[in-house]
Amino acid sequence: GAVVSQHPSRVICKSGTSVKIECRSLDFQATTMFWYRQFPKQSLMLMATSNEGSKATYEQGVEKDKFLINHASLTLSTLTVTSAHPEDSSFYICSVPSGYAGYTFGSGTRLTVV
Amino acid sequence: GENVEQHPSTLSVQEGDSAVIKCTYSDSASNYFPWYKQELGKRPQLIIDIRSNVGEKKDQRIAVTLNKTAKHFSLHITETQPEDSAVYFCAATPGYSTLTFGKGTMLLVSP
Fold this sequence. Notes:
The complex is a heterodimer of chains A (114) and B (111).
Chain A: E1 4-7, E2 10-13, E3 19-25, E4 32-38, E5 45-51, E6 57-58, E7 67-73, E8 76-81, E9 90-97, E10 103-105, E11 109-113
Parallel strand pairs in A: 2-11
Antiparallel strand pairs in A: 1-3, 3-8, 4-5, 4-9, 5-6, 7-8, 9-10, 9-11
Chain B: E1 4-7, E2 10-14, E3 19-25, E4 32-38, E5 45-51, E6 56-59, E7 62-67, E8 72-77, E9 86-92, E10 100-101, E11 105-110
Parallel strand pairs in B: 2-11
Antiparallel strand pairs in B: 1-3, 3-8, 4-5, 4-9, 6-7, 7-8, 9-10, 9-11
């Protein structure tokens, strides 16, 4: 499968600030990447589908103006949590569909908003 | 869209016993069914997967079965070990689209 790098692994930010999370596909050209959010002791919930060179597709209930996604190249997608609040604290993880090899996940980002 | 149900939510076994986790899916178009193991604070790791043209797949102590008619697939772990303790997620997808995950099963293997 693909090799996926996600940064940062942990971030603590103040309420009201913005945080950018990067997801890089190191050896696979990814026209699509998926962003998930996982609250403690819960499953992975799809937030949005990131499409290279076009707008992201957001799942119902996910605010597109709050969770900005940019997929400017075949190797990089970014998720920016704008005006973060404590309820945005969660584990954010990207996934790259890598053909017949299935899906590869980034290492995840633990966001804590204080 | 796809809906995946997973049971049980928690499973406790003694070391050496077998563990079975079951999932059902709703979308008959789904054709790829991976199973992931996730340890606390880490990314999900693929442990085994199956495609709709196969009924069973085995990899050492882990096996997965698929019943397309019943829209049902299961994970079987034999000779469980304490290091098998983790949360296991099933998932389904119709082709190279987004994965829909089950709610997860916390497996606890006691020595």
